[in-house]
Amino acid sequence: MSNLIEIKGLTKEFPIGNSTFLKKRAVFKAVHGVFLTIKRGEIVGLIGESGSGKSTIGRMALRLIEPSGGSIIYDGKDITKLNHKEMMGYYQKMQIIFQDSASSFNPRKTIGEQIVTPMLRLGVARSRKEAEMDVYHLLERVGLKREHFVRYPHEFSGGQRQRIGIARALALKPEFLVLDEPTSALDVSIQAQILNLLLDLQEEFNLTYLFIGHNLSIIKFFCDRVAVLYKGRLVEVADSDRLYTNPFHPVSRMLLNSVLTLDKKPLADDLSENTAKINRNTGCVFSGKCLYATELCFEAHPEMEVLSANHQYACYNPQNVEETQEQLVTL
Ligand SMILES: Nc1ncnc2c1ncn2[C@@H]1O[C@H](COP(=O)(O)OP(=O)(O)OP(=O)(O)O)[C@@H](O)[C@H]1O
Ligand SMILES: [Mg+2]
After folding, report:
1. 292: domain range?
2. Contact between 99 and 160 (Cβ < 8 Å)
3. I need a surface site. Which of 18, 275, 313, 325 has the fewest CB within 10 A?
4. Candidates 11, 52, 62, 212: which one to mutate for ligand 1, based on the most atoms within 8 Å of Cβ?
5. Same-domain pairing of 160 and 210
6. How far apart are CA 205 and CA 282, in angstroms?
């Protein structure tokens, strides 16, 4: 499988506070040197605590917000510096679905009209008639009816609105979709329906997904590989099954523990002694909370170690290394 997306050293800084004439404006680094490759047809999950930078990465990958550093390679082409006009073809190929995708619809226009307009603008349909036919077909494909074409956004339920968002994205014939917590606002029963729909569509249209989420059981069932983010840094990337059975990084273990063993304390609980030692500028971002931190962890952030093609981690004291190396030898 060829690489569809290569994220190379992606960084995002947001300005904080006010700049004065003499003092340079302070910045907050929301994303810090992230490398991630997504193959064509693959579903990669991005997980991490709230505020860890997941949506920022997703939006930068689509160039909806500009990176402060690093590059995005789409199908072999560096798109980081392309201007708006040069990006037009890529805006069509890359779409995003977020929690309530239909909230960005204009409440005073029918949903059909709003799906057709960008199709004509981006040239994915040759005529209005053709665009309308495509939309009728798509509405049915996502579980709605062609009569819904002339309805207004407020006439739909949460699940239906998400289906409309999916239809709008697919109408542009994309290759790559960022799914930014697409089901977190929905009831559990509806969540499953939408996730199954997304999986069917992925296969049918040979789509590539970056799936952002919190719910780890969903991610396990949905994704081929998972990338774990902590405070803007990737700390582990592994095949879904491997990450669930053999997480190396304490952050991955913490995220898994917090759902798998509710009676067990997560690793990040009450570690005030370490917090006092943390050196925010140089040490590992997790060192202040990590039970396994050693002196080195407070001095420099660890580089990504490549254990195998499908497993990388950034930690000086990974927890399952011996077990796994034994397993690898016996394989
Ligand atoms: N436009 C902005 N200006 C300033 N700070 C921002 C901006 N957008 C995001 N941030 C900050 O960057 C960090 C990462 O935000 P982001 O939305 O990417 O997190 P997330 O992992 O998607 O969180 P959640 O799970 O809550 O959606 C947060 O601390 C957030 O406050
Ligand atoms: Mg987010």
Report:
1. 246-331
2. no
3. 18
4. 52
5. no
6. 45
Strands 3-16 and 176-180: unpaired
pTM confidence score: 0.89
Q: Are residue 253 and residue 321 in the same domain, yes or no?
A: yes
Question: Both 183 and 287 in a single domain?
Answer: no
How much distance in Å is there from the Cα of 108 to the middle of ligand 2?
A: 28
Instruction: Write out pLDDT tens, residues 135-155.
Output: 999 999 999 999 999 999 999
Domain for residue 216, yes or no?
yes
Calpha distance 248→327 (Å, rounded): 14
* Two structure tokens written together for 37: 């490759």
For ligand 1, mutation pick of 54, 59, 60, 183 (most atoms within 8 Å of CB): 54
Query: Which ligand is in closest contact with the Cα of 48?
Result: 1
CA distances from 24 to 13, 15, 17, 38, 67 (A): 14, 10, 10, 37, 19
CB 103 within 8 A of CB 187: no
Question: pLDDT digits over 49-63, tens only?
Answer: 999 999 999 999 999
Q: Looking at the CA of 50, which ligand is closest?
A: 1
Q: Are both 331 and 252 inside the same structural domain?
A: yes
Residues 6+ positions from 84 with CB-CB distance below 8 Å: none
* AA letter at 32: H
Q: Which residues of the chain have pLDDT under 50?
A: 260-279, 324-331
Q: What's the 67 CA to ligand 1 centre distance in angstroms?
A: 14
What span, in angstroms and rounded, lies between the C-alpha atoms of 232 and 189?
Answer: 32
CB 269 within 8 A of CB 290: no
